[in-house]
Each structure stands twice: as structure tokens, then as C-alpha cells.
Amino acid sequence: MTLWVIWFVDRRREIEKLATLINPNLIPTNDASVVVLIVVGVVLLSMLGAGSIVLFSWGQRQTSLIRQQRNFVSSVTHELRTPLASIHLAYETLASRDLPEATRQKLLTMSLVDIDRLIRLVNQILISSRLDRGLNMFQDDIKDVNISEAVNDVIKTLTYLDEKIATRVRVNADKGLIWRGSLNAFNMVISNLLENAIKYSPPKSDVEIEAAITGAQLLVSIKDRGLGLTPRDKNRIFKMFYRSSEAAKRAIPGTGLGLFIVKTTLQQLGGSISVDSPGLGEGSIFKAAFPV
Ligand code: ADP
After folding, report:
1. Which is nearest to 42 in space by CA: 2, 9, 12?
2. Average pLDDT, 10 consecutive residues per value, the chain (292 residues)
3. At a CB cut-off of 8 Å and minimum separation 6, what does 205 contact?
4. Rounded to two decimals, what is the model's pTM?
5. Which of ligand 1's atoms lies nearest the C-alpha of 259?
6. In angstroms, what is the span from residue 175 Cα to ligand 1's centroid?
């Protein structure tokens, strides 16, 4: 812009001569009108600059959204294909061979686990789409929730991630701790956070869950000794479809919807979520605040 002002002042006479050639009736400018012209020029240039910046950042956002959606489609395809292939194989074996009862039962149980995985994936997609559209899903579901029992129930639903999950997760909550709110919302938040704590940690490593009512909030923290997060990822992981490059590099399955669901669910309740991690490889602690 400075260069343009210098150029304009320097070339003013030539520009005026050119203008009078085009229109001989033009009245030559005085110094005051030159200042006005410069001010108008500066304003127009600033608007052009601001517009370019807005367009550039919008373009950047679109590019990153398209990239994330592509990643999402490829992870969903993978997440669908793996359990479907294993169900197909199990049923092919069941249909074609005379198997001992124990093997039949084992194959059926494995298929059920795979079907649960598929149902969970489809539910995640449906729920995130509803939350993204701003639909309130929890307002009619208010009751007294025993926190310790609810957390232990969530742990049981995640045995498909690790059969020994109950021995890995330590729950530190008063047995009589009651929170009045939506059990569905509570389960949604805790199951996603706990699933991640298991998924992004080495096998057998401990996960600690602490819950207590502090002031007007039920605070639940979930601490793992896993992959950890870079400062850059800490600011991004709650966005829809976002997956850290470290998670993708290690081929840890996922769709980038879990933490988006956690954040929007808590927002609907009037609560919040935060995360802390000393760095990559140093574990993470997620803190969910539910309003009392
Ligand atoms: P998904 O796990 O399906 O990829 P999420 O939305 O649950 O999607 O998580 C988004 C990203 O946040 C993950 O891909 C992972 O990179 C990071 N993340 C989430 N939880 C943890 C955790 N406990 N430890 C390390 N990284 C995590």
C-alpha cells in the first residue's frame, strides 16, 4: 500500500495529463483533492487486501475440510470392511463345515462383537449428524444417575476393545455419588473418552477415572498413559473428522467423530471439555464438566 501511495504521488502529473487527454474538460486537481484521492485509494486497497485474506482463509478451510472428509470416507470404509469381512468368513465357515459346538459358539460370539462394532459406528455417524444440526437429544431424559454404577456399566460395554478392560480401569468415585441429568448424555461422553483412552494407550497400561461434584459441576477426569498430544493437536481434536497424524501413522482405527460428539453433547448440557497432555508419548487427561 505504501508503495502504491509513493507511486501515485510520484506519477500524479502524468496521470493528470493522461486523464485530460481522455477528457479535455477535466479540471486539474489541487493538493486537497489529491489527499482525498489517496485516502479513497488506501481504503479501496485495504478492502481488496481484506477481501483477499478472507478468500484465502476460506479456501484454506475448504481444502482442509475436503481433506478431512476424504480421510473420513476412507476410515469409515475401512471400519465397515474389516468387521464385515470377518462376519462373512465366520458364516462361511459355519455354513460349510461340520464344526464342534465350542467352535460354533466361538464364531458366533466373534460375529456378535463385529456386529456390535458396526452398530456403534452407524450410531456414531447418526448422532454426530444430529448434534451437528443442533438437535437437542437429551432434554427429555433427566433422572438421578449413580455415577459409579454408570461408569462401571460403560466399562462393560467396551470389552470388545480389550477383554481385560475392567482390570485396567481404576474408578475413583464415591459409591453414593448421584448426579441429576441425562444418563444417555453421560454414557455418550464417558464411553467416547474411555474408548479413546484404551485405543491410544499401550495394552495393559492403566487408565484412571475420577468423578466428584465440585461447586455447581460434576467433574469427571479420564487419565491415560498413552500416545499423548502435541500442543497443535490439543486445539484441533474436538473438530469433526479431525484425526492426529500420529493416530493415522500408527493405523489406529477411528473416524474423528468421537470427540466432536463429546464436545457438542457437553455444550448442549451447558458443560465443557478440556484436555491436557505433557506431550507426545506422555499420556493425556481429559476433563469433562457436567452442570449440576
Ligand atoms: P477417533 O478416535 O475416531 O479418531 P476422536 O474424535 O475420538 O476420533 O479423536 C480425535 C483424535 O484425537 C484422534 O484421532 C487422536 O488423534 C486424538 N485423541 C483422542 N483421544 C486421545 C487420547 N486419549 N490420547 C491421544 N490422542 C487422542
Report:
1. 2
2. 80 80 74 80 90 94 85 87 94 88 93 91 92 87 94 93 92 95 95 96 95 95 96 92 88 92 95 95 96 92
3. 168, 224, 225, 226
4. 0.80
5. 6
6. 29
Q: Which residue has the least CA distance to atom 2 on ligand 1?
A: 254
Would you say 161 and 207 are in contact if contact means Cβ atoms under 8 Å apart?
no
Does residue 259's CB lie within 6 angstroms of at least one atom of ligand 1? yes
Cβ atoms 197, 207 nearer than 8 A: yes
Cβ within 8 Å of residue 5, ≥6 positions away: 38, 41, 42
Report the nearest-CA residue for atom 11 of ligand 1.
243
Q: Is 258 in the pocket of ligand 1 (CB under 6 A)?
A: yes
* Atom nearest to 246 CA in ligand 1: 16
Look up residue 286 and give its three cell numbers.
481429559
Between the CA of 149 and the centroid of ligand 1 the distance, in Å, is: 25
Task: Write down the pLDDT at residue 96.
Answer: 84
Q: Which atom of ligand 1 is nearest to 254's Cα? A: 3
Cβ-based neighbours of 229, under 8 Å, separated by 6 or more: 237, 244, 275, 277, 279, 280, 284
